[in-house]
Amino acid sequence: MAKKVLIADDEPSIVASLEFLMARSGYEVRIARDGEEALALVASFLPDLVLLDVMMPRRSGYEVCQRMRERPEWRDIKIVVLSAKGREAEVGKGLAAGADAYVIKPFSNRELVEKVGELLAA
Questions:
Q1: Quick check: 55 pLDDT over 80?
Q2: What number of other Cβ atoms are within 10 A of residue 47's Cβ?
Q3: What positions does the domain Response regulatory occupy (predicted)?
């Protein structure tokens, strides 16, 4: 059974690229275009991993991450924060919110696929 990945990002070109990349890597993929939709899909789709943009409408990626970590049934879902904000303080904020990894945009597709594979194998 394929592992499930939720892509939560409001940038259409990034969503299309990530969706293609994750599907090609054998993952079952769903898309959320804002923070509220992301939380709704976490509840209904129960992904194994979430690729989570920081700056989204209706709830930030940080808020989504914190909400996910507050729910015991979602604590094992891996979270990879994707952000153009690469300052040390931002990375620290993402990890403090509960992210398993923080990837700075632009990123290498190969490195992202490797990171997702590592997290899902753990």
A1: yes
A2: 25
A3: 4-120
